[in-house]
Automatic annotation (TrEMBL):
Protein's UniProt keywords contain Transport: no
Keyword Transmembrane listed: yes
Keyword annotations from UniProtKB, A to Z: Membrane, Methyltransferase, S-adenosyl-L-methionine, Transferase, Transmembrane, Transmembrane helix
Record GO biological process: methylation
Listed transmembrane segments: 6-26
InterPro entries named among the record's database cross-references: FAM173A/B, SAM-dependent_MTases_sf
Molecular function (Gene Ontology), one example: protein-lysine N-methyltransferase activity
Name under which the protein is recorded: Conserved putative membrane protein
Amino acid sequence: MKIVILFFVLLILILWIWFSVILWSLRNGISPMPTTDKARKKVLSSIPHETQGVVVDLGSGWGNMVTQLAKLLPHCQVVGYETSPIPFFLSKCWKKFERLSNLQLKRMNFFEASLKDVSLVYCYLYPAAMERLKKKFEEELKPGTVVISNTFAVPGWEPVQILQLADIYHTRIYVYVKNNSNVAALHAKAEDEEIKIPLTMAKK
Ligand SMILES: C[S@@+](CC[C@H](N)C(=O)[O-])C[C@H]1O[C@@H](n2cnc3c(N)ncnc32)[C@H](O)[C@@H]1O
């Protein structure tokens, strides 16, 4: 009898987790699909080590990327924004397990967060979110802020660099510098990449 009760409790728990993830994916317009290993390595190797200040992952999901950012940049304050409760909860556990004191995880809609003190933005979202974020970036980000977007470009902005992955999707990772005042470090990083983009002014 106890086994049967345990089975049903577990079943309900699994269904509840599954339902929550699906519901929030529909609500947010995207599932909490993590950045792939290849993309993560590429992104992390392209980030200038001299990056200072606040680094954000807009939609931090299960924490795969944001925890690695916090490890790579221990001198930076790294912030992950996520609304979906299950991925958020697991990313909190991950943070605790890894004892990442420079990582803050906030359960909130990133469109409601201020980006004015941010020095580097990472995101892996979807086209409609990038359209909305473009306006927010233009209004709030300070000149020199680096924006790295996995797969989806910021519409109308000119990347300083495009990293192309050798995966089946030929994934592109777009690197932007707002108003382009901080491009020297990225230029050096760009030298051995597959696609080199002239470091021209990022379009406003
Ligand atoms: C494709 S996942 C990327 C996860 C993580 N950044 C990574 O690269 O591994 C996108 C995440 O953004 C979250 N998201 C989408 N819109 C959001 C919003 N407005 N506020 C907070 N999180 C959001 C989704 O719930 C999802 O977990």
